[in-house]
Amino acid sequence: METSPTTPTPRSFAVIFVLGPPGAGKGTLCTHLAQKHNLAHYSVGDSLRSWMRANHATPLAVRIRDKLDNQGFLTSEDLNPFIGQAIKDAIYHQDEPRYQGILVDGFPRCTEQLESFDTWPFQGELPLTPSSNSGGSASSSAKPDVVLSLRVTKENARARYLARARDSNDSQEKFEKRFVEYETETIPVEEVYRQRGVLIDVDANGTKEENVNTLTKKLDESGLWQKVIVEGSTGAQFLV
Fold first, then answer.
1. CB 86 within 8 A of CB 47
2. What keywords appear on the UniProt entry (predicted)?
3. What pLDDT is stored for residue 90 in this prediction?
4. Burial environment of residue 61 by CB neighbours within 10 A (0 to 12, 13 to 18, 19 or more)
């Protein structure tokens, strides 16, 4: 007997971008949010480094390494397949309770990466229903649902970055380069999301405990966070 194909059903699933300079504490605060709100956490940097170690001899890994060494940023063409797979894995995660969203930590870092999301780039694999204000298409208002911007002074960021250095590559020289990249490339990205009304600024200059408390208070007071995460009301929904 033939079985009829399953009709996809809409599912609210939040996509949250987390931005900030090196040493802002993105990983620490994402771990807290993931546990508290049942969110998947995908660190673009950590996951890419892990993938590179396991696939270092492949042509793609060689190309990515060359770009990182010579350009600083990867393009959306390089990164979007990884991000799309992370979102797909989180949506179809089988354990209960199901994730209600994903924290994408460290993306987008430049305008080119941001613009790749102006039209949902995964409509074939991860189709979205039109959001109410998109005019019938998955537009720039579709995803992300929320963007968190962690604010920290350069002095605090430098001290944290050097204290947590993973290896000899995490030097003061590398910190200075990455902080300049954040100021020139990522702050304009944050401004775009601020104008779109999806950005939440969070002061992350305190201790770990202070930053968790500050973040909790900020999100408790945010109508956007309450709507998307607490009420589970995202604009565009995934068809799964």
1. yes
2. Kinase, Nucleotide-binding, Transferase
3. 97
4. middle
Name 238's bridge partners: 11, 128
Q: What is the Cα–Cα distance from 136 to 197, expressed in whole angstroms?
A: 20
Q: In this predicted model, what pLDDT tens digit does every residue of 123-169 receive, in sequence order? A: 999 999 875 544 444 454 579 999 999 999 999 999 999 998 766 67
Per residue in 18-50, is it b (16+ CB within 10 Å) or e — as a string?
A: bbbbbbbbbbbbbebbbeebebbbbbbeebbee
Overall residue count recorded for the chain in this entry: 240
Instruction: Determine the Cα angle at 224 with ends 236 and 113, to 5°.
Output: 60
Q: What is the pLDDT of residue 138?
A: 47
The runs of H, that is alpha helices, within the chain are: 26-37, 44-54, 59-70, 76-91, 111-115, 154-163, 172-181, 187-195, 208-221, 223-225
Per the CB < 8 A criterion, the answer to whether 236 and 15 are in contact is no
- pTM of this structure: 0.90
Tally of CB atoms within 10 A around 87 = 22
Check whether 98 has a pLDDT greater than 60.
yes
